[in-house]
Amino acid sequence: MTSLNQLFTHQRTGNHSVVSASRTDFQRDFDRIIFSSAFRRLQNKTQVFPLPGSVFVHNRLTHSLEVSSVGRSLGSLAGEFITGNFSGDLNENSKTFYQHNLSNVIAAACLCHDVGNPAFGHSGEDAIASYFEKNEKDLKQKFNEKEWADLINFEGNANAIRVLTHQQKGKDVGGTQLTFTTLASIAKYPCEAIARKKGFVNRKKFGFFQNEKETFQEMAKSTGILEENNEPLIYKRHPFVWLVEAADDICYNIIDMEDAHRLGIVSTSDCENLFFDLIKSENQNTDRVEEKLKFITNSNERISYLRAKVINALINQSLHLFKSNFNEILDGTLNEALLDIYRKENPTLQEIERFSIKKIYNHKAVIEIENAGYNVMYELLNHFIPTVLKSKDKQKSYDKMALKLLPEQFVYNEGKDYEKVLGVLDFVSGMTDNYATDLYRKIKGIDIGMTM
């Protein structure tokens, strides 16, 4: 079990020293993410429903902001719990951190937890992974086993670590230069791709590409992450991950319902009943809620009010589970997400999940955007990857023209084939929905003509 005093560090990528300033290092993390281009691009990346539309729904950026808000609350409450119950185990620096800065760490981690997700949601991830699977015959021999595992299992969580830490060509070392503490807090699956294994919460997917393996190891050492296995490399989760994951799970479970209601996919009565039942199951004062609803006649406002009460209830329940499983969280033996534990106990949360799968995630508009996004991303990769893997003497004129579309910071001519491909993935996965669609239409000849 790692000491509570070892779970955080001021060290950041790029080996920058601690700066004495009006903001703490962890507040600076939050601000750096806010002003980063990777975060800004989330405003035009699909959360669930197609963008844009006549009705405003959540995109990846608004989702991340709301997750960050929930995460700050969870971090603050967890900090109070740790300082209140483990004061004798904490040095003075740690007491200050848990009292005043754990909330900043969780908020910053929540803010950037999705920056590695490509355009078009999970269908974008699927397109990237399946591109390599479908072209295995031509491509696999160009990579070693671990590199190939990275590509055929492309994962937004691992890509987030790359986006935030990788030094792009011509740019400063250390990427966004966040503290290792914030980075450790988003590492839901702290293992390499060949170690993926269902049934293990820390190995359901993978958390870093081979290119970022050394950075991840340095981060793990600095933040007290427990090593589970060396070859293949597997770590236990960092304790702060559970709070970031809970904030994300709370938001997407509930806010997708609110979006579906605004779009008319879910009726007001269905949404109200599910939300109200969840509040009731938490033994909250439902009389007060019912009294409040008497004065709110606008259907969207009624759902917004109930959504706020539901989120508050789930924050309290997540904190309760964090406390009751704290020893298992610290020693890395807990094998289930906090909200998954609660879902088993709560039939209403189970019903919201079933309802969402049936009515929301399988809605025609959602399926259409996933199909379209898959094809767009697949074809963009097909345009660039064969070209970057050709030696210069074998490149035809159309290959050279394709390469001119790749911004300089993504071109690694002198690197291994693996690095060249990662450069293309950096470019394509960083695209917004609109940019990816526009480029696809242009290279396919659907749109011809000069546009800026």
Automatic annotation (TrEMBL):
<keyword id="KW-0378">Hydrolase</keyword>
<dbReference type="InterPro" id="IPR026875">
    <property type="entry name" value="PHydrolase_assoc_dom"/>
</dbReference>
<dbReference type="Pfam" id="PF13286">
    <property type="entry name" value="HD_assoc"/>
</dbReference>
<dbReference type="GO" id="GO:0008832">
    <property type="term" value="F:dGTPase activity"/>
</dbReference>
<dbReference type="InterPro" id="IPR003607">
    <property type="entry name" value="HD/PDEase_dom"/>
</dbReference>
<dbReference type="InterPro" id="IPR023293">
    <property type="entry name" value="dGTP_triP_hydro_central_sf"/>
</dbReference>
<dbReference type="InterPro" id="IPR027432">
    <property type="entry name" value="dGTP_triphosphohydrolase_C"/>
</dbReference>
<protein>
    <submittedName>
        <fullName>dGTPase</fullName>
    </submittedName>
</protein>
<dbReference type="InterPro" id="IPR006674">
    <property type="entry name" value="HD_domain"/>
</dbReference>
<dbReference type="InterPro" id="IPR050135">
    <property type="entry name" value="dGTPase-like"/>
</dbReference>
<dbReference type="GO" id="GO:0006203">
    <property type="term" value="P:dGTP catabolic process"/>
</dbReference>
<feature type="domain" description="HD/PDEase">
    <location>
        <begin position="56"/>
        <end position="262"/>
    </location>
</feature>
<dbReference type="Pfam" id="PF01966">
    <property type="entry name" value="HD"/>
</dbReference>
<dbReference type="InterPro" id="IPR006261">
    <property type="entry name" value="dGTPase"/>
</dbReference>
